Amino acid sequence: MIKKCLFPAAGYGTRFLPATKATPKEMLPVLTKPLIQYGVEEAVDAGLTTMAIITGRGKRAIEDHFDISYELEHQIKGTSKEPLLTEIRSLITQCTFSYTRQVEMKGLGHAILTGETLIGNEPFAVILADDLCNNNGNDTVLSQMVKVFEKYQCSIVAIEEVPQKDTHKYGIIAGNLVDNTTDTYRVTDMIEKPDPKDAPTNMAIIGRYILTPDIFEILEKTKPGKGGEIQITDALLEQAKQGNVIAYKFKGKRFDCGSVEGFVEATNYFYNKMKD
């Protein structure tokens, strides 16, 4: 049973400067909730209650958000504003939050490796808060992936088809279809941000993973790849060579909130959903 979810949250969020100069990008709100809260809610919905968060300098707001604010609660107690804290109170009650810092930004693979002390020797999920997913009342993406993991007992990556011209923005997989009823593939190759002409498919990895603990040992031996960073796709490729990576084409809608365009799209979508 998967109990822990890792949140890499040490990045600078440079695409949102100057807003992210003093505010973590994971705390940027879509309507009234920060991005990382949506991710934690998704993890809880999938049955995970231990949250391991990789932070960095200037990220204290994340820790403060998932903590009780006694002064604020005292000020609004008994008023019409008190119910606005119901959701975050519920998360604080249900979950355990632990934190460690990524001192240097050396890529997603390095961020995940930094979390080894918080995860230990067990399978775990990874959520990138930048990728905000919605499922219109159906199973969340991570809930879907947990079911896939229960069947295959190996690392799982969530994928979606992207325009061929955009392959340079993603890790791209190639694989063999193993179940067309659930759109699952056994991965045979993975390439980090290939040029469109070099991409084997247009199936892109998004910010949802379930990883087996041997990934840590592989990451320790993984040399810097694309952009001089330690890439999780390079480590996953080592697992894939043993047939131990499944790609799952999830059901739902993803918003790339790491871009201004995607962030605005998500805000409009959730606002219209709230009105309805």
How does the SSE layout of this entry go?
Blueprint: E1 4-8, E2 29-30, E3 33-34, H1 35-45, E4 50-55, H2 60-65, H3 70-76, H4 86-94, E5 96-101, H5 108-114, H6 116-119, E6 124-127, E7 131-134, H7 141-152, E8 155-161, E9 171-179, E10 184-192, E11 203-211, H8 214-221, H9 232-240, E12 245-249, E13 253-256, H10 260-275
Can you characterise this structure?
It is globular, with a radius of gyration of 18 Å. The longest helix has 16 residues, at 260-275. Helix 5 (108-114) packs across helix 8 (214-221) and helix 5 crosses helix 9. It has one domain (4-275): Alpha-Beta Complex (Spore Coat Polysaccharide Biosynthesis Protein SpsA, Chain A), CATH 3.90.550. The chain has ten helices and 13 strands. The protein is α/β, with parallel strands linked by helices and 276 residues long. The model has no long low-confidence stretch (mean pLDDT 93). Helix content is 32%, strand content 26%. It has helices at residues 35-45, 60-65, 70-76, 86-94, 108-114, 116-119, 141-152, 214-221, 232-240, 260-275; strands at residues 4-8, 29-30, 33-34, 50-55, 96-101, 124-127, 131-134, 155-161, 171-179, 184-192, 203-211, 245-249, 253-256. It has a nine-stranded mixed beta sheet with strand order 5-4-1-6-11-8-12-10-9, with helices on both faces.
